[in-house]
Prior knowledge:
Layout: H1 17-33, H2 37-52, H3 56-66, H4 70-83, H5 87-107, H6 111-121, H7 131-162, H8 172-192
Amino acid sequence: MLTLTSPIETYAHRxxxxxxxxxxxxxxxTLFALKSPSALALAALIPASxxxxxxxxxxxxxxxxxxxxxxxxIVIALWHLILRDPGGxxxxxxxxxxxxxxxxxxxxxRLADMINxxxxxxxxxxxxxxxxxxxxxxxxxxxxxxxxxxxxxxxxQSWRARSPRRPGWRTLLPTTLAxxxxxxxxxxxxxxxxxxx
Length: 197
């Protein structure tokens, strides 16, 4: 839980975390500036190329990490089909591209390196909030998102294996409890490693 860094070593693992996070921020901001589906489709080739260039094993692992996004994509696609809104294509392309890019950075960056970058950025906030605390909170949030999506997907699959009814809202409580349980385990692991000190 404390790390989602891919054990499959790639060239991107050797790049500084600050460079990758800055590039991700710039790329994501650019995505929101693009309106045309064709421009967004071209932008989607960037994370796709980065993932593919890291080898077939890394690509398979990356695809597995993105799989929990599929239900969200389906819901958004159906909603825009019902409304007959062509703007849904741009929304989906933006969402998938941004998540794929963030996933690539997450998989190729150690949690400790992320915390160091966020800690440096948070130094001006020292009088209000300890930079190390804020840095850890941001880094753990980035790490938790794909993990929670995977856990939610596992719970939905478990429901489908036991019931012919659609899971819908019924998986909300077990997903919430699983998230709290994961957070408790992370807190214990941090305490065992000496906390923030």
